[in-house]
Write a structure and sequence with these properties.
heterodimer, A: alpha+beta, Alpha-Beta Plaits, DNA polymerase, domain 1, Dna Ligase, domain 1, 3 domains, five-stranded mixed sheet, four-stranded antiparallel sheet, 39% helix, 21% strand, B: alpha+beta, DNA Polymerase III, Chain A, domain 2, eight-stranded antiparallel sheet, 6 helices
């Protein structure tokens, strides 16, 4: 007797030009114009570009400077992550109405396993259509959907007909769908692998790849080769894993010019620590491990961590932990282009383990932090904060 | 320098001083052992700048003088030799020649003048105490030391003279902010020690002192100028003390208990070990419920399931329910010796007290967790 593998119904939902779309939604006057969202500094890159902007050859990860050259009249806007997060959680909530198996991949895309939902909500294609309609009605945003028997195919499908698309890969149509696609659509095929495949083995399309024996792929590419063998045949057994637990909370910045001055570096760290602490408090976490990340001007990356006895969500404590890590870096002696601060080893509540020594200062600080958070929520981030950061805003 | 020495004796001494040597030091000299020949003996010294150990042993000295040798290499050479005696000779330009008449080693070494001097303060008031007893005090406290950073300085064992009912005891206390261990012992002459209102001995130094003392015999112990000095036989240990920022632990010891139960130590230890099977970083709490004649332990981990065990106790009174990190119980119960232990509880915001008949002078405290 053979066991028939359960046929799955997977949907990949991918928001269309998400950040740019949210900005257009919030400022109807820029509708129809090329909108580019990205880092505002000289070294910033494009995070998201509207379809109007893409017509100028602008795409994400492109330096902002290049985008400005390509489209001088574009609407260039800074990233407002908090706002996108807010819209994103509303969208994820809509997805959750049809199945508990929602796996957010990033802020603007998610996999849904609706195998068990068809009896309740109709066919998978009807569910995908209903999701698109609800997202548009409730948020005003369009989303592209890919429907397929697994995650790999669903992800490719959602990208086929952007924006506002709905692409279905029927189980019997997998080969017809995949074979004509270029090989760099496969997960794991970067520039180097593509060059080997095309240059040495003459493989350009996924259909060509299917002609290569499994053993050859394994010898050439190891584990990746085996995966390519399966993917080329549309096979992908990975489950949709709901939840996606938060493991760390952090923030980093790339600076417009390299930083050598240690005082300046310390101020930037304080600024990052303050942001991270506020996000920890907003999400109700405290964390015990503080990590400082430094990218030097030559792009070498170093991270240094230390673990505290008690979990913290306080900017000063995070800052102090980072300062203690500084001697283990070359900050102040070697120019750096990026600093990052993150807190991991997260605990859900503040100190579930009670402490023997009640630190009065700690309790007072906590009350102060919560009060500051409320002021900032009401009047904005800039009205209150660490004094040493004041000159930043000049 | 030129010596002949018994290989076994030297190996044992090198093994001892080796512990102190920094494995990954940015000062290469700290990975070496200083060997000084004088009269009819040699002295081995090792230091990590916070901690220094000197060991003297008899040798046939052909020519007095000093050399430094990589501690690791010297240890390996001695370990691999099968002969009874080895010869060590200093050569020009800091080369050191070692031979057991079978193999010959020539080692490029560093000049002995570069070795940091371990300056011992003079005229130190010291007392003599039983090594086994000192070792016991250390092993009953050191497990609670934390190297994690906190507002207080907790990376060592706090040692002080404590007056209890008109008598002066030698007291050691260690805490990581969540649990605490404290042990008192009557030691003749303790009131003469120059240790102010208490000293902090760092964990590494305390561990070395514990090893030295644990071998038995009498240990001389004294304090002076931010240094702890200990001598046992031919070994001399110097520990630089930590700055004391130890919290006022006396305030957190509950004055009274509302519930107290006696349990078999090993049975409770085993039960806690079983509870730990289902705990992890996120779910560490074991629920301890006590009611008429019964103590129940429950560990729940939403990802895995739950575990439960019930033990009979001699308690009659109001029911009580609290959460604890089972690992803290395992640590303290392992360090104790008594057959039966007594747990005392006050309320869910106060620590549990742990005592045992045969662990005289010992008190363990464990703070609960919110359930």
């Amino acid at each position: 007797m053979t066991v028939q593998p359960r046929e799955r119904r997977i949907i990949h939902m991918d928001m269309d030009a998400f950040y740019a779309a949210v900005e257009t939604l919030d400022r109807p006057e820029i509708k129809g114009r090329p909108v580019i969202v990205g880092g505002s500094s000289r070294r910033g890159v494009v995070s998201s570009a509207s379809y109007e902007a893409r017509a100028y050859g602008i795409h994400s990860a492109q330096p902002i400077a290049t985008a400005k050259r390509l489209c001088p009249d574009g609407v260039f806007l800074p990233v407002r992550m908090r706002r996108y997060q807010e819209v994103s959680s509303r969208i994820m909530e809509i997805f959750g109405r049809f199945t508990p198996l929602v796996e957010p991949v990033s802020i603007d895309e998610a996999f849904l396993d609706v195998t068990g939902s068809e009896r309740l909500f109709g066919s998978v294609v009807e569910i995908a259509g209903a999701l698109k309609k609800l997202v548009l009605e409730e948020t005003g945003l369009t989303v592209s959907a890919g429907v397929a028997p697994n995650k790999f195919l669903a992800k490719i499908a959602s990208d086929m007909d952007k924006p506002d698309g709905l692409t279905v890969v029927e189980p019997g149509m997998v080969a017809a769908f995949l074979d004509p696609l270029p090989i760099d659509r496969l997960w794991g095929v970067g520039e180097a692998t593509r060059r080997t495949l095309t240059g040495t083995l003459g493989v350009r399309r996924i259909g060509d790849l299917k002609r290569l024996p499994r053993g050859l792929l394994e010898r050439r590419f190891g584990k990746l080769g085996l995966r390519l063998y399966d993917l080329a045949r549309g096979r992908d057994e990975r489950e949709v894993v709901p939840g996606h637990e938060v493991k760390s909370i952090g923030h980093e910045r790339t600076y417009p010019e390299d930083i050598l001055d240690p005082d300046r570096a310390r101020r930037e760290i304080l600024y990052l620590a303050d942001l991270v602490a506020r996000r920890l408090r907003r999400k109700g976490f405290s964390g015990k491990t503080v990590t400082l990340k430094v990218k030097y001007a030559d792009f070498t990356l170093r991270t240094r961590s230390s673990t505290l006895a008690l979990g913290t969500d306080d900017a000063r404590e995070i800052y102090a932990a980072c300062l203690a890590l500084l001697p283990r870096t070359e900050v102040g002696r070697r120019p750096l282009r990026l600093l990052g601060v993150s807190v991991s080893n997260l605990e859900r509540e503040m100190d579930r383990q009670l402490a023997l020594f009640q630190d009065e200062r700690r309790l007072k600080k906590r009350r102060l932090n919560l009060a500051t958070d409320r002021v900032q929520e009401k009047f904005g981030d800039r009205v209150i904060g660490p004094g040493s950061l004041l000159e930043k805003d000049e | 320098m030129e010596i002949k020495i018994n290989r076994d004796d030297l190996l044992r001494s090198v093994a001892r001083v080796q512990n102190i040597i920094e494995k990954r030091s940015n000062m290469p000299i700290l990975s070496t052992v200083l060997m000084t020949a004088e009269g009819s003996h040699i002295t081995l010294s090792a230091t990590d700048l916070e901690l220094g150990l000197r060991q003297t042993l008899p040798a046939q000295v052909g020519k007095e003088g000093s050399v430094t040798i990589s501690g690791r290499k010297l240890f390996e050479i001695l370990k691999e030799s099968k002969k009874e005696q080895v010869e060590i000779r200093a050569r020009e330009n800091n080369w050191v020649h070692i031979t057991d008449q079978v193999a010959r080693f020539n080692l490029a070494c560093m000049p002995p003048e570069d070795f940091p001097a371990i300056a011992a303060p003079e005229e130190v008031v010291s007392i003599t105490l039983d090594g086994v007893l000192l070792g016991e005090m250390i092993s009953k406290t050191i497990y609670a030391v934390t190297m994690e950073e906190a507002g207080f300085k907790l990376s060592g064992v706090f040692v002080e003279k404590a007056a209890v009912e008109g008598e002066t005891f030698l007291r050691m206390v260690a805490t990581d902010g969540h649990r605490l261990s404290m042990v008192d012992h009557r030691v003749p002459g303790v009131e003469t020690l120059e240790m102010g209102s208490g000293v902090m001995i760092p964990k590494k130094g305390m561990a070395e002192l514990g090893k030295l003392a644990g071998e038995g015999g009498e240990v001389e112990l004294g304090f002076k100028q931010n240094t702890c000095l200990a001598r046992k036989g031919d070994a001399f240990l110097m520990i630089r003390l930590l700055e004391t920022k130890f919290p006022d632990y006396r305030l957190v010891i509950p004055k009274e208990e509302t519930c107290s139960v006696s349990l078999d130590r090993i049975a409770l230890l085993d039960a806690m070990r079983k509870m730990v099977i289902l705990s992890n970083e996120r779910y560490r709490a074991v629920k301890v419920s006590i009611q008429d004649g019964e103590m129940e332990l429950v560990s729940t981990n939403p990802d895995l399931g739950d575990a439960q065990e019930t033990m009979a106790v001699d308690y009659r009174g109001d029911a009580l329910e609290m959460g604890f990190n089972a690992r803290y119980f395992i640590d303290v119960l392992q360090a104790m010796e008594s057959e039966s232990v007594r747990l005392g509880f006050a309320d869910p915001s106060k620590p549990c007290l742990i005592r045992g008949e045969a662990d005289s002078g010992f008190l363990g405290l464990i703070m609960p967790m919110r359930l």
